[in-house]
Amino acid sequence: MGLMSDTVPADSSEPSPEPGIRIGHVERLSAMEALKQHYGAGRINSQEYEKRSVQAEKAQYESELDELFTDLPAVASPVAPPVVESLTPGAPPVEPDPGPARVPSRGVLNIAEPYATTIVSITPILAVILFFVTRTWLWFLVIPIVALLVYGPDGREGTGPEAARRREREK
Q1: Contact 65, 56 (CB under 8 A)
Q2: How do the residues of the chain divide into helix, strand and coil, expressed in percent and rounded to 5?
Q3: Is pTM, for the whole model, over 0.85?
Q4: Rg (Cα) of the chain, in Å, rounded?
Q5: What does the alpha-carbon distance between residue 51 and residue 136 come to, in Å, rounded to a whole number?
Q6: Which residues form a coiled coil (predicted)?
């Protein structure tokens, strides 16, 4: 009865601990750039990249960003976009638009998007022509092979159910 125990029951009237340091747009953009580097290096797949990017975009505290990188090695720190001071005194600083996110191409052939779509679209037409010329059905096997070589196993960026859900969230 003389010694106090090390564990003290938590009082429900105490406020919850602070979640950490708040972050801004620059930190979120920096985290998203680091995720792009990990995706480009092949450490995370496209679904994991998309999931973590959405979490980084919604993060409000530094600890939320740190959780995204616990299983990834450190990368070279991306340069944060410069903050432009507003001409109006007392106005918050204006951050420049980072522009569209560039996702590395996934196909073996590394063909840029306008040409990749054209090649994949023309392949079935060529397969049909070659089928009638040579009288062998094996030309139809070229269609999925070309699609895999151009877009890779994950398919074309911006298609599929995940992309549709992302577009709905953006509306």
Answers
A1: yes
A2: 50, 0, 50
A3: no
A4: 25
A5: 44
A6: 44-71
